[in-house]
Amino acid sequence: MNTRSLHQRIAISLTFFSVLVAIPIVLVGNWMNERAEQEFWQAMLNTELANSGPDRGQSANAHRLLDSYRWQPGSSQESVVPPEIRELHPGLHDNVQHQGRELAVLVQESDGMRSAASIDITELEAEEATLSAWAIAAALLALTLLLIALNWLAKRAIEPVTQLSAQLEKRAAASTEPFVTDFEEREIVAVVEALNGFGARIREHVQREKQFVETMSHELRTPLAVILGAVEVLEMRPSADPRSAAALTRIKQTAKALSELARVLMFLSSRRELPLAREEVELGAILQRSLDLFRDEFAAKGVAVHVQASEPVLLQAIPTLCETVINNLIRNCCDHGSGVVEIALSAQSLAISNSIEAGTNSQASASQGWRGNLGLGLDLVERVCMQLGWSLHVVGADDVFQVEVKF
After folding, report:
1. Which long-range contacts (CB under 8 A, 24 or more apart) does 362-370 make?
2. Exposed e or buried b for every residue in 135-152, given b needs 16+ CB within 10 A?
3. Which residues pair with residue 355 across a beta bridge?
4. Contact partners, residue 126, CB within 8 Å, separation at least 6
5. Distance between CA 106 and CA 119 in Å, rounded?
6. Is residue 353 within 8 Å of residue 314, measured between CB atoms?
7. What tens digit of pLDDT does each residue of 144-200 get?
């Protein structure tokens, strides 16, 4: 997702607003300048026409800045009137070009006679163009300074939010330090207090969960040790009844599975920042031991297991956690699978695909974490994978369930 800084958003908004305000001001200022200029030409040329008198055909001042003409259309008097002025309609006209000069001309008509007065504004227009260029340069400079000022103001305005954002980015996942701010604005203080309150509630909830899991795991381990000890004593006595031997085997497997569950729960509820020793682990051997453990159960259900592992897979990992992940994935296949189980082990991943027993909804099982009989379930398996630096991917489609663990 593409994101944009709040600082940029505020700066761009202020700049856009400033431009919207500046454009009407410039347009109105230019209109007022043109209007004042026309009023000035109008008054000056009216005075010139009034002073020229009704009987004068042409008059000019000493510097040839002001000229006036009076003629009757169609008469010989038109010959002395420049064609650029003669063709003009009554009214005020500026930017009239005559002999390379720029004129402002006022034309009046009365009783069939026309009179016109002109003033040379070439130098004035040149000065106006120069002043306009300086005004544009000043406006660009002012706009640049305005952008700098708006950028600084926007940065200053969101500084409290920026500070909180920096604290959030640098904050460790297990940190219990409260958020702090040097700003006293009510809104910022309310946000900081809300974050601190929310964090406190989360810590209390996590602490209660950890305490419950640790207590439950501890209480489970004692009776499980008693059960395993009793099973070992019973196994010392030879039994001719195969059903009794199978029952003892099942009790032993179940007790070991529960003991493993208690151990993993204790691990997941412990402090995450304590590093665990890693060593070289051969995943193929762990997979084979897990398959041997459930061989009889697969055979009893008529499930065939196909394994593809052409070469040893050696990883730096925690052996007990690797056994936990593989044992629970195989147990889920044994408890819920049917037909053929396909297992592929490589240096990059472990992939398991199996058909689902009739009456089992694979999509619902995948969405609920696929909790198998006495298994950790894929939700806890995923947490163990995270501790190992692995990733778990689950796909359920129709009657086929696929799990892939990427190392």
Report:
1. 362/396, 362/397, 362/398, 362/399, 362/400, 362/401, 363/396, 363/397, 365/336, 365/396, 365/401, 366/394, 366/395, 366/396, 366/401, 367/396, 370/332, 370/336, 370/394, 370/401
2. eeeeeeeeeeebeeebbe
3. 338, 400
4. none
5. 9
6. no
7. 898 888 888 888 888 888 888 888 888 776 677 788 887 878 888 888 888 888 888
CB 372 within 8 A of CB 328: yes
* Cα torsion angle, 214, 215, 217, 218, sign: positive
Question: pLDDT tens digit string along 379-388?
Answer: 778 888 887 8
Q: Which pTM does this prediction carry?
A: 0.46
The single residue listed with the structure tokens 């908004």 is 13
Torsion of CA 329, 333, 335, 339, to 10 degrees: 180
- Give yes or no for a contact between 322 and 284, defined as CB atoms under 8 angstroms apart: no
Amino acid at 395: V
In the block, residue with structure tokens 């689950």: 394
C-alpha 7/C-alpha 283 separation (Å) is 51
Domains in the chain with CATH codes: 6-155 (no CATH), 275-406 (3.30.565.10)
- Containing 55, the helix (H) or strand (E) segment is none
- Radius of gyration (C-alpha) of the chain in whole angstroms: 47
HSE-CB of 354 using CA atoms within 13 angstroms = 26
Distance CA 85, CA 94 (A): 11
Query: 394 exposed, middle or buried (CB, 10 Å; 0-12, 13-18, 19+)?
Result: middle
Output phi, psi for 309, to 5 deg: -150, 90
